[in-house]
UniProtKB/TrEMBL annotation:
SMART domains: POL3Bc (SM00480). Pfam families: DNA_pol3_beta, DNA_pol3_beta_2, DNA_pol3_beta_3. Its main location: cytoplasm. Belongs to the beta sliding clamp family. SUPFAM superfamilies: DNA clamp. This is DNA polymerase-3 subunit beta. It comes from Amycolatopsis pretoriensis. GO terms for molecular function: 3'-5' exonuclease activity; DNA binding; DNA-directed DNA polymerase activity. Gene3D superfamilies: DNA Polymerase III, subunit A, domain 2. Coiled coil: none annotated. It is found in: Cytoplasm. The lineage of its organism: Bacteria, Bacillati, Actinomycetota, Actinomycetes, Pseudonocardiales.
Length: 352
């Protein structure tokens, strides 16, 4: 193999693949008339990124991902990759770096399940950032570490860590059928790389995202139990509409005075909400905001950081809080409908 490529474009492709693959993974580099392809896989995951390049001699090699990524980050201009015996040399006008060649038997080829639909990449990434934020980071039950994707006429994203749940619905560019549970961390990183129109792929036990120049495919989790239908939402007796940014700012200030669990109380009155918290060693705080209120007075308590996460999902908008009695979930939605429909369920806490 002998190929020349822009260092910054090759670095972007190699770094994207390295972030998704295990730390000690190898990368397969393939050069042909179409350019340079960077690919890698393990039993559960496969990635592929394209890079513009001029192939002098077609060929394919496998090299360690980490040192290749670190080296390319520090290079500029054009870099020539050429096989020299048992090494892949990276050559510039005034420098040479050489990496060992690995066995080409490093895993199956990148699978490409059938494409079932398409979605706008920007809207998908924006909705996913919010939804994936509610997935558990480390849980013995894998279903709480994933994002469920369901498609028919729209795409629905759902995630939960059992204390909160976020559900986003956004339009599809073409109808399709899909129901999979995908690891949230992987899905978020893949969506961050995606540009333009994103293809949604599904096959037996696998899911994939594709976009011009990239493909990520992964094994899926069991999607059966993660559903907003499992959360009671028919007992709403109070609704509060308020500027999300103003309420979030008040939560930050008042939350400083909360106890170690950082629980604060949201007291709903006539045309206002009052935030209150107290901490034995630093004192107490309260702040009142004007709001539109319908229904009875109530005083649910929430963990401050969870309430803040929920409000940040509606930054720049007015948010409607639908409050249920007792320990039932509070439901947050945008007061004015947008292209992406977001619903955020937040469990109350017992006040001290």
């Amino acid at each position: 193999m002998d190929v020349t490529a822009p260092a910054h474009r090759l670095s972007a492709a190699v770094s994207a693949a390295s972030r998704l693959l295990p730390a000690r993974a190898g990368l397969r580099l393939r050069a042909d008339a179409a350019g340079l392809t960077v690919a890698g896989s393990d039993p559960d995951l496969a990635v592929r990124f394209d890079c513009p390049a001029t192939a002098h001699t077609d060929g394919s090699v496998t090299v360690p991902a980490a040192p290749l990524a670190e080296t390319l980050k520090m290079l500029d201009g054009l870099v020539r990759l050429v096989v020299e015996g048992s090494r892949l040399a990276l050559r510039l006008d005034n420098a040479r770096f050489a990496l060992p060649l690995l066995s080409t038997e490093s895993g199956p080829p990148v699978p490409e399940p059938p494409r079932v639909s398409e979605v706008d990449g920007g809207a998908f990434a924006s909705a996913l950032r919010i939804v994936a934020g509610t997935a558990s980071k480390d849980d013995p039950l894998p279903l709480f570490t994933g994002v469920r994707l369901q498609a028919d006429s729209r795409l629905t994203l759902t995630a939960s860590d059992r204390y909160r749940m976020a559900v986003a619905r956004l339009p599809l560019l073409s109808p399709g059928s899909l129901d999979v549970l995908v690891p949230a961390t992987l899905l978020t990183e893949a969506a961050r790389q995606a540009k333009g129109t994103v293809g949604l792929h599904a096959g037996p036990g696998r899911f994939g995202l594709s976009w011009p120049g990239g493909l990520v495919g992964t094994a899926v989790l069991d999607a059966g139990f993660l559903s907003e239908d499992s959360i009671p939402s028919s007992a709403v007796d109070t609704k509060v509409t308020v500027e999300a940014d103003a309420l979030a700012a008040a939560v930050r200030r008042v939350g400083v005075y909360a106890e170690d669990r950082r629980v604060l109380t949201l007291e709903v009155g006539d045309a206002q909400v009052r935030l209150a918290s107290a901490r034995q060693d630093t004192g107490e705080a309260e702040e009142t905001l004007k709001a539109e209120v319908s229904g009875g007075r109530t005083s649910p308590s929430f963990q401050a950081r969870y309430l803040l996460d929920a409000l940040q999902a509606f930054a720049g908008e007015r948010v409607e809080l639908s409050i249920q009695p007792g320990m039932r979930a509070c439901i947050l939605r945008a007061a004015e409908a947008g292209e992406v429909e977001l619903t955020y369920y937040l469990m109350p806490m017992l006040a001290r």
